[in-house]
């Protein structure tokens, strides 16, 4: 049986990295949008 | 539609897990547990392939990621068709979510395939019909996301994205069937009969345990994973729509 374990580990690492990138980017965008909403609500109140 | 996203912007604006609808919380937890279970089956339950060794286990993620991408891209088609019919912005959000989640899963499919190919085909990449069509599929959906940001007018952007998203599914179907219609591919056809493929390299006979692991992982990745990720992405898009609405409101004063 060939020793291909290193490639399996690499594959799993890449799987976690890609999923973490997708989920992490969603979390960051979510936080930024909440900050934007807070700021815009404040601006709207100031204008009123 | 109410399951997909709250129509109440204040509810969407709340932060943290507490703001998630109960069904989304359950779905997210179920997805995490199911993916971990599928991984356990792939790593410990299914036997080791004698010819390929441990690297064959990548296949459980590789195929599953493609099934997930396929479902997500179908979401883009449904969202696009429904948006063109109803002009309801929520459908456009679903289409966008499908494209983004589908792209991530198809990149995962492509990269795990490359890692598997290195020890089995002795190369990271070859311009095989299946690999080429999968790369074209990824690029098509990457272009969808980029082109969306390039159109300023929201209505025009949604209309364009809907049509593009519907047409883009042809690249997914092509990727799906290409190993059955092109005799010169070296990509193995693992599931179902193939009319050809004397050139296939890396095909493996799977045991009952392997078959079960493939089935369970593909089911998890084609149902729970894309649906959960798309739901979160739709909620994100709702926040973005709220920001745009607030900006317009302030600028129009």
What do these coordinates show?
- The complex is a heterodimer of chains A (48) and B (253).
- Chain A is mostly helical and 48 residues long.
- Chain A has one helix at 5-47.
- Chain A starts with a helix and ends with a helix.
- Chain B has 253 residues and is mainly alpha-helical.
- The relative contact order of chain B is 0.17.
- In chain B, 72% of the residues lie in helices and 0% in strands.
- Chain B has eight helices and no strands.
- Chain B has a single domain, classed as Four Helix Bundle (Hemerythrin (Met), subunit A) (Up-down Bundle).
- The A-B interface holds A 1-5, 7-8, 10-12, 14-15, 18-19, 21-23, 26, 29-31, 33-34, 36-37, 40-41, 43-44, 47 and B 13, 15, 48, 50-58, 61, 65, 100-101, 104, 107-108, 111-112, 115-116, 118-119, 229, 232-233, 236, 239-240, 242-243, 246-247, 249-250, 253.
Question: TL;DR?
Answer:
The complex is a heterodimer of chains A (48) and B (253). Chain A has 48 residues and is mostly helical. Helix content of chain A is 90%, strand content 0%.
Number of strands of chain A: 0
The most extensive contact between chains is:
A-B, 30 and 38 residues
Number of DSSP strand runs of chain B: 0
Rounded to an integer in angstroms, the radius of gyration calculated over CA atoms of chain B is 20 Å
CATH architecture of chain B: Up-down Bundle
Structural class of chain A, by secondary structure, is mainly alpha
Named CATH topology of chain B: Four Helix Bundle (Hemerythrin (Met), subunit A)
Q: Could you report the average pLDDT of chain B, rounded to the nearest whole number?
A: 89
Q: Mean of residue pLDDT of chain A?
A: 94
Give the C-alpha Rg of chain A: 21 Å
Element string of chain B (H = helix, E = strand): HHHHHHHH
Helix tally of chain A equals: 1
């Amino acid at each position: 049986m060939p020793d291909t374990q290193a490639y399996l580990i690499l594959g799993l690492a890449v799987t976690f990295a890609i999923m973490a990138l997708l989920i992490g980017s969603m979390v960051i965008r979510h936080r930024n949008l909440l900050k934007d909403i807070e700021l815009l609500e404040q601006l709207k109140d100031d204008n009123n | 539609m109410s399951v997909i996203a709250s129509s109440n912007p204040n509810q969407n604006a709340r932060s943290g897990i507490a703001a998630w609808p109960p069904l989304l919380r359950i779905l997210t937890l179920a997805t995490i547990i199911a993916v971990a279970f599928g991984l356990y089956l792939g790593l410990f339950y299914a036997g080791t392939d004698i010819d390929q060794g441990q690297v064959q286990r990548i296949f459980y993620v590789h195929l599953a990621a493609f099934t997930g991408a396929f479902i997500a891209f179908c979401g883009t088609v449904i969202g696009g068709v429904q948006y063109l019919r109803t002009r309801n912005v929520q459908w456009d959000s679903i289409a966008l979510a499908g494209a983004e989640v589908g792209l991530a899963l198809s990149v995962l499919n492509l990269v795990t395939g490359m890692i598997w190919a290195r020890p089995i085909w002795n190369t990271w990449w070859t311009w095989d019909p299946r690999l080429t069509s999968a790369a074209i599929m990824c690029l098509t959906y990457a272009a969808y996301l980029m082109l969306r940001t390039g159109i300023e007018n929201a209505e025009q952007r949604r209309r364009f994205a809907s049509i593009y998203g519907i047409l883009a599914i042809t690249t997914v179907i092509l990727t799906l069937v290409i190993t059955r219609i092109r005799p010169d591919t070296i990509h193995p056809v693992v599931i179902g009969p193939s009319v050809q493929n004397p050139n296939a390299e890396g095909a493996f006979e799977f045991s009952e345990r392997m078959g079960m692991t493939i089935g369970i992982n593909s089911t998890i990745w084609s149902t729970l994973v894309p649906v959960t990720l798309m739901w979160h992405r739709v909620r994100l898009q709702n926040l973005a729509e709220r920001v745009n609405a607030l900006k317009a409101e302030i600028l129009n004063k």
